[in-house]
Amino acid sequence: MNWITGLAFVLFAPIIGGLIAGFDRKISARLQGRMGPPILQPFYDVGKLFEKETMVVRKSQRLYMEFFFVLMVFTGAIFFSGGDLLLVIFAFTMAGVFFALGGYKASSPYSFIGAQREVIQMMSYEPAIMLAAVGMYMVTGSFQVSSIVAYKHPLILQLPGLFLAFFFILPIKFRKSPFDLAASHHAHQELVKGITTEFSGRTLALMEIAHWYEYVFVLGIGYLFFASNVWLGLLMVLVIFELLLIVDNATARVRWQAMLGSAWIVALAAGGLNIIYLMLVKG
Amino acid sequence: MASSLLNFLILFPLAVALALVLTRKESLFPVIIYPASAVLIGASLFLAGLHAGGKPLFIAAHYDWVESAMLAAEAAVSAYLLFLSVRQRDWFVSALVVVQAVLLFGFHFGCGHGAHAEANLFIDLFSVVMGLIVGVVGTLIAVFSVGYMRDLHHHAPAELTGLGSSPQPGSAGLAAVPDNRPVFFGIIFLFLSAMFGVCFSNNLFWLFFFWEITTVCSFLMIRYKGDEISVKNAFWALRWNLLGGLAFLLGLIYLYQTHHTIELDKLLALPKALVMLPIALISFAGLTKSAQLPFSSWLVGAMVAPTPVSALLHSSTMVKAGVYIVLRFATSLEGTMLGMIVAIIGLITFLIGSFICISQQDAKKVLAYSTIANLGLIILCAGIGSYEAVWAGILLIVFHAVSKGLLFLCVGSIEHKLGSRSIEEMSGLIVRLPRLAFMLEIGIAGMFLAPFGMLISKWAVLRAIVDSNPLFAIFLIYGSAATLFFWVKWLGKIINVEKHYKNIEGGISKDQWLPMWALTGLTLMICALFAPFAAVFIEPYIVALYGHSMSLGAGNMAVMTIMLSMMAFFPLAFLDRARGVSVAPPYLAGANVGPEGQQFRNSLGGVTEMHMKNFYMEDIFSEARLMRLGVMMTVIFLIALIAVGGLL
Question: Which of A24, A27, B42, B367 is the one with CA 20 to 30 A from B409?
Fold first, then answer.
């Protein structure tokens, strides 16, 4: 375990995550033929939220989101310290559970439906992420992130199917089309703002920062597939992100049935075949 | 010392049971049950303390009268079951009873005459752990049942009798349940005695005897309410458990005929290739008892019994006897075809059980299916049989017994308060029944959330299977994704406040609160202290079997500890932190109306209530279809299990 990189994540991830969000909006705008906001716009937005009044339906609803924030930071910290990948995923799941519970606690029909969809999303993406961890273990012989990073060859060469399954569920975690079901900006008519409907002010700002942490963490998992070379890894993270934006702009939101079905089937087919291949290679 | 303690643990509950059956005054139940429970808890803790970290201890316990008493009891039970099954015209059960009796007595007075065990009883760490579960969790549930049964017969509104049916006060309700509490409590203590017997028997015929007693207890408890559906489900449960019992007996007789032994330790010491058939047959009995597919439906039907029965027999202890015996064979199953088939049956049960939970609204049914699924996980561990898997399996037994016992008790009390056990009715439970809701949250968190117990074991299971068969890991992962979904949506329903509710928690008796608080405390405690617990009670057992054991690693333990201490802050949710925050009614896309604005003015000028309903995805995770699929797949593997056992 290397606490320095973990600490670096805690300190710098919000900056990187915020910049990612800024580039996201800029690039998406360009793809749609608009100017788009300044790169730093997400920081201005969050700064403004901190000055707004915090309104709630149930007082304790904020605590769930504060736990989401803390657990998200914690998840990334263990991951970037090189901890056990399975534990990281469990902590990540726990963070997600608190996020969803916050939506339930808010006790409004829109946050409720958003929370329901959020949990369906979690159920959809979990197999792909867990299988990726299993595949990495089979190749490198360890669940420790530090050992996986230290592996000499790019993991993607042996884990193409698992990478595909991972990429397929990425839009869920970035809350992007076609899987932006729980809290979409674009689904106002059906969802208002989904799970975040009843959140405002400081709590909403905190949730936004937690999402920035989440972006960096999820891209970190993507990095593992190319980790044998730092520059290749960073380059590929950029490529993944760019592809994600293209997918976002080229697709429409699907129903939850389509999301759950396709995410599970892709994970089972691509990921499962990949694991069978690894079993055969290992003999 | 240890030997007299064992005798005490088996005989004392029996004496208490006799006393309870003869009791005619309601006020005497607590007077007998509380001290008896305290004594049993003390004795099982004392035994654990005495034996902590120790080597297996074999106890001769040769008493002539015991064998005769057991035979007499078997004869009486067979006659009684035969009588009941003939009256019910359940010929399948009658046939099973007759065949079993003929085999058993034929063996005892025929070819097996003089079959003799050097040590009838034994203690090792695994049986100490099982004994702790029976002694602590079991007796806590017995205490709970005093208050619960008083409510059931006096105060509470009508309880659901048929699963899935809506409450119908009067018709299917309490007036119809005849008050037969002396027998009820008597059976509970008889059952505790039999469970201690199962855990500590080395003589397999003794084990078989106690095993059959638990089957009969389960049968009598399921039919306690006496209505048509209870009796029908009781016979359904009896049928499969007797079938398992028959397989057990056949395995024993075969073992004696071929190897002239009837002792568990000798069976395990034989070269495993020679004893595959008896192991397969006894494992088959374990699968029926722990309600694995294709037999799972008996456990779902058993949920008609009063809730303490479901907690005690059908979740915390009796079904654990099934996984206990299969886990005992883990070393023999490891790396064999038989072990592979057992593991696959457990895995299919885990997957199907978890999927079905998604579509269930009845809280008790969710608990039933999740119990089936978790037992499947333990069976999977046993089938894999590596040291990591056995480590995880034993921990799963412990964590599951405590958390599930708690959950059942909570649901029982909630049902008496709300008059329903539908999860959809549990909206705002955190306001209406705050303490019960808190315990329910702890119980649910214990079932699936990091860093609580079950998750630690799931993690270990995953590591164990990735090493032995990564293909299994794929299915395990899908099952646990489903687990996540149904627990979170239940948790969400509890904390979600749909209307303006009042606190209605008064009137729950102390003898219900005390066991529930105790189990809540235990859930948290074993989670905090599982590392020392495992070091003292589990790891020496694993080391003795495999020569080395499993450890989580200091770094991972640190991570777990940090997470647990974070969770300690969660009760802050109950504090009113209103500074700088304004409370507003929820957004309803219309003007809010009503005391807390939970209704809105609709487009016709009328007032509409808001409603929130969970997803159940009945078309995707349909109970009937999934059950059919699971039964079909597992029947194929079961036939294979018997065939493989026969061939090897």
Answer: B42
